[in-house]
Amino acid sequence: MTPQFAPCPRPRAASVQAPRAVVMIRPHHFRPNPQTAADNAFQSLDTARDAAAVAQAAHDEATRAAERLEAAGITVHRFEDTGTQTPDSCFPNNWFSTHAGGHVAIYPMYSPNRRQERRADVIALLKHRYRVQDVIDYSGLEQDGIFLEGTGAMVLDHVERVAYAARSMRTNEVALERFCTHFNFEPVTFDAQDAQGRAVYHTNVLMCIGTRFAMIGLDTIRAPARRAEIAQRLAESGREIVDLTHGQIGDFAGNAIELAGRDGPVLALSRRAWAALRPAQQAALERHATILPLAIPTIELAGGSVRCMLAGIHLASRPAP
Question: Which Pfam family, giving just one, matches this sequence (predicted)?
């Protein structure tokens, strides 16, 4: 499968927190993944459409989302997935991440069919268009039953060098410690539950960290002392905190990402997520970024949203040929 190489982004002032470019995978045979349904309470089924209609709708949603990001000045490197064995391939942030200084990480995935999402052509693109110094591959930990699903399992504060992580079957503390040692982050772990008392499967559905704001479902954090500590750390970093309810998290309000657009910071999230926020919360976010709501209702059936679809590139561009 041949990637579509987008032009390298032009230099412009931006926060280390907000990448100027992303990788997206456009699915051709999308469907909610039965292998992840057991611990992903955000998944749902569409009984009104057949499989072909669902797949086409997801393909079209990914296309329109990429176009809107590009219109905002964000570089989108698009790849196609025409295979039938990788239903969650549109969520690449779980299997790799990139970091300032030229570092790339590849992660161990919990579900067997998600391990097939890892692609050499994506890593080749990164090496070709950006300055990559090394690639650290943790995927061998799968053989030991140890998993860490990238920036789904971790929400990274690139400014303060903190990795926030909710414990789950997809977030192993041994792997987290190893990542933090290699990439110079401080691990901050906690237990998080939804309104029904189920463990939250990925940290990035309950938390988003921007340059000057943080969205977080504080009520999901079980231990009051830990909840207060995390809220204090975010406040001390100078960020305005937007506290999310359980219902808003269920509508994917936490699954957002700050990007560096042509005219400044952009907050990308789904239309469903944006509509779930109260006016005061929307006003708080609008103080810090231009809001870019993307319509992806079919893709959200798989239990992920906009943040999961965008693998941010925190690497320096190579000079244009």
Answer: DDAH_eukar
Position 9 scores a pLDDT of: 41
- In angstroms, the CA 257 to CA 266 distance is 8
Instruction: Give Cβ neighbours of residue 48 (< 8 Å, ≥ 6 apart).
Output: none
CA gyration radius, the chain: 18
Q: For residue 292, what are the domain limits?
A: 21-313
- Cα 45 to Cα 48: distance, rounded to the nearest angstrom: 9
By CB atoms closer than 10 A (0-12, 13-18, 19+), residue 317 is: middle
46-89 per-position pLDDT tens digit: 677 888 999 999 999 999 999 999 999 999 999 999 999 999 99
Separation of first and last alpha carbons in the chain:
23
pLDDT above 70: percentage of residues in the chain: 92
Please say if the pLDDT value at position 13 is more than 50: no
Tell me, what CATH number does 81's domain have? 3.75.10.10
**Is residue 199 a part of any domain in this protein?**
yes
Is residue 171 in some structural domain? yes
CA 241 to chain centre: 19
Please give the model's pTM, rounded to 2 decimal places: 0.92
Query: Can you tell me the distance from the alpha carbon of 321 to that of 318, in angstroms, rounded to the nearest whole number?
Result: 9
DSSP class of 100? T
pLDDT of residue 208: 98
Laid out side by side, the sheet with 290-294 consists of: 257-261, 264-270, 290-294
Q: Quick check: is 271 in a domain? A: yes
- Do 251 and 287 touch, CB atoms closer than 8 A? no
- Is 54 among the domain residues? yes
Structure tokens at 284: 């708080």
Q: Which of 38, 76, 27 is nearest to 199 (CA)?
A: 38
Q: Which helix (H) or strand (E) holds 96?
A: strand 96-99
The CA-CA-CA angle for residues 121, 68, 252, to 5°, reads 85
pLDDT band at 40 (very low <50, low <70, confident <90, very high): low
Q: Report the DSSP beta bridge partners of residue 164.
A: 155, 188
